Structure to design on (79 residues):
């Protein structure tokens, strides 16, 4: 669960508090104590829903060996 929390924090640092409307994913590999994790996101789309702009993201968290340990997606409101 700390992996998900760290990844979510990276997203809220990127888009701002209170803007995430969706965040989910799955664990793809074991995380061990002492691992160094790096989370990254890619904007996959920006779209309008009424008068609100929405951004869609792909998310990946990797360990120190470059192995993906968490893959996910997110959606956020843009102001």
């Amino acid at each position: 669960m700390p992996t998900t929390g760290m990844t979510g924090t990276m997203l809220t640092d990127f888009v701002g508090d209170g803007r995430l409307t969706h965040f989910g994913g799955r664990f793809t590999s074991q995380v061990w104590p002492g691992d160094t994790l790096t989370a990254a996101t890619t904007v996959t789309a920006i779209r309008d829903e009424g008068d609100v702009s929405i951004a869609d993201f792909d998310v990946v968290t990797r360990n120190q060996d470059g192995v993906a340990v968490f893959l996910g997606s997110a959606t956020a409101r843009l102001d």
